[in-house]
Amino acid sequence: MVIFGASGDLTHRKLIPALYNLAVDGLLPKDFAVIGFARKPKTNEEFRNEMTEAVKQFSRTKPIDEALWERFSSTLYYHQGDYSTLADYEKLCGTLSEVDQNHNTQGNRLFYLSTPPEVYNAIIKNLGESGLGKQDGNMRRVVIEKPFGHDLNSARELNEHVHKYFHEDQIYRMDHYLGKETVQNILVFRFANGIFEPLWDYRYVDHVQITVSEAIGIEGRGGYYENSGVVRDIIQNHLLQLLALTGMEPPVEFEADAVRNEKVKVLKSLRVDSTNGDGTVRGQYGPGKVDGKVVLGYLQEDGVSPESQTETFLAMKFWIDNWRWAGVPWYVRSGKRMPKRLTEIAIQFKKPPMNLFSESTAQTIEANSLVMTIQPDEGIALKFSSKVPGSGENIKPVVMDFKYGESFNVPAPDAYERLLLDCLLGDPTLFTRADEVEAQWQIITPVIEQWEDGIGSSVDLYRAGTVGPKEADDFIKADGRRWRPL
Ligand code: BG6
């Protein structure tokens, strides 16, 4: 496996710890080695030492198994090179041949692009021109991290560029949300149970709410975030994936293309609401307090322009124009510096068709909801009404609660562990296909373009540590509904 961007944060925090944990679980092939490729000069020894620190800090399993790490780290190599210089890739061929000899890796290669997106084109081209991408009886695959393009045109161009050198079945576009256990469980919950799917449509569902709320800010990534905003950082990829998995039809089989075909279909039926403004509410966090700690406002963060209009919060309303979801609104929201970390998908059902109880009791009856908590506190909860014991006619909502932590006594692997393993095994089910990533941009690009043209919602301030701007509440209240409390 060759990691481009080996000095970067992702390599330290996620990739090497995930590989090490695969080794701990006995899932990594015995004949395996990693070459870190980056610009800074560094020896193998220095790279190994850095990775030792990274694994000590970020590994899921602790303490580190010294003997295993000793073995694993001896398979780490460093190759200094410039991403846009072909000669450096020719040299890389030499390093790879050496590694093949030392580790019996037989010419199989997984290239991981963990660099800033500006150098994706150069890396892909050089992999192609140096012959490294050519699959000739052995395995040659390329993993591309997000962001995949910054709008529809750039995503199309990037797809065309990659397709010049790699076949679609060699390309693994990463969206780490798909590697989360709870996200994979959406399809299992829907399609391995008989009782939920009959309720999963316009006849019983009033609306759906998807929330990706984060307590963290932009974590020193001002330069990146200024050009991204929450719309590109979360909504276009992670959140639309959650929506697609929740809204898609059952695939004909549980196989990569069958699953992705259904996701593409639902994404193509997705429409941003335009009955009330542009169907969006944008916000930006000001100074405030999160978890009792005073935090800066977005405009005071490093790398952010003092006049920035970048949104750190976004609420949107969608429709899915197909038979199943006709007339069911989908409300989504995501923001940084909200009160807590929470990702959930809530299916809000309709109220019973008539009231059998007294007027005052009827007031207390809440509609049923089914909430899939993706993180933290992973689980699924079904809320229904129950009689309060006693002679009166009191009704209260109660909850049937499934918690992963309580039901399964095994720790969940990190998303990157599952996804890296799938790349090695050649299973692209949990990766975004070319047409899928374009379908995602097709929905989001017109929204961004409107904002750029000064049309649509303004960017409203919210205090850090609050649930977003007041306008987001008004937005959903206009439909007679409320956001779920976080
Ligand atoms: C990343 C975004 O893709 O996802 C970050 O760039 C965000 O801004 C992160 O914080 C959230 O991922 P997770 O797994 O912590 O929910």
Topology summary:
Layout (H helix, E strand, L loop, with lengths): L1 E3 L4 H16 L9 E5 L5 H15 L7 H8 L2 E5 L5 H18 L5 E5 L6 H10 L10 E5 L7 H14 L5 E3 L7 H11 L13 E9 L8 H5 L2 H19 L8 H13 L1 E3 L7 E7 L1 E3 L2 E3 L17 E8 L8 E7 L6 E8 L9 H6 L4 E7 L3 E9 L7 E9 H4 L7 H11 L8 H19 L6 E5 L6 H8 L9
Parallel strand pairs: 1-2, 1-4, 2-3, 4-5, 5-6, 7-13, 9-18
Antiparallel strand pairs: 7-14, 8-12, 9-12, 10-11, 12-13, 14-15, 15-16, 16-17
The protein binds 6-O-phosphono-beta-D-glucopyranose.
6-O-phosphono-beta-D-glucopyranose binds next to loops.
Q: Which cofactor or ligand species appear?
A: 6-O-phosphono-beta-D-glucopyranose
Q: Radius of gyration, rounded?
A: 24 Å
Helix content: 25-40%
What CATH first level of the largest domain would be assigned? Alpha Beta
The number of E-state strands comes to 18
- Detail the poorly predicted runs: none
The CATH topology of the largest domain is Dihydrodipicolinate Reductase, domain 2
Percentage of β-strand residues: 15-25%
The overall pLDDT, averaged over residues, is 96
Per CATH, which architecture of the largest domain? Answer: 2-Layer Sandwich
Instruction: Determine the N-to-C terminus distance.
Output: 40 Å
CATH-assigned homologous superfamily of the largest domain: Dihydrodipicolinate Reductase, domain 2
Instruction: Count the domains.
Output: 2
Q: What is the general shape?
A: globular
Question: Helix segment count?
Answer: 15
Biggest sheet statistics = 10 strands, mixed
